[in-house]
Amino acid sequence: MSGDTCKTIVCVGSSMNPALKASDILHVLPCNGKKIQCGDVIVFPSPESNRMVVHRVISVDATGIRTQGDRSRYIDPWILRPESIVGRVIRAQRGNRQRLIYGGVRGRLYSSGIRAIRMIDLKISSLLHPLYHRLAQTHVLRRWLPAWMQTRVLCFDRPAGTEFHLIMGRRVIGRLMPGRSQWAIQRPFRLFVNEASLPSASRTPGHR
Questions:
Q1: How many domains does the chain have?
Q2: Is residue 84 within 8 Å of 96, Cβ to Cβ?
Q3: Is-contact 43 1, C-beta < 8 A?
Q4: pTM of the prediction?
């Protein structure tokens, strides 16, 4: 990238959910010497592999830049130098909709809010988790699903392999990412899905 020209990349993985999701198209603006701030969402090559990482800046000091995914429990183990940063994510496109990705103070407030909500959710989930999964295993609620809520699976070829989307109506309620063996299905939709009937990474279905 040169000058102030944006580059687009495709988001892979779930470490920045819900701000960024897999398959989002990210618009990345080069830093060009501009100061990196806490709360910025940046793109950089992983110090541990040859892949690109999109994470949020959580600290900037004399030692370097520390990052963490919004959904990650732990701070990334590396310390980055400003010259290693590819750019800052300023917009994300999901389907036909584009939205701004805020950095700085607004980015910090957003990520703090997400973490607080997740902590509350985890505490509630730990209490209801056994009941939820027992009910999901009975498949009893599937009997009353109207026709428009019946699920279907779409598959997409990605550079890393086949990615599966579980659709209910017009909504994506679950994903099986390349290389993963377990579906990620949003609550409460697992109550309406027979997970054993879903395709796995080892068998590739047609569109249905």
A1: 2
A2: no
A3: no
A4: 0.63
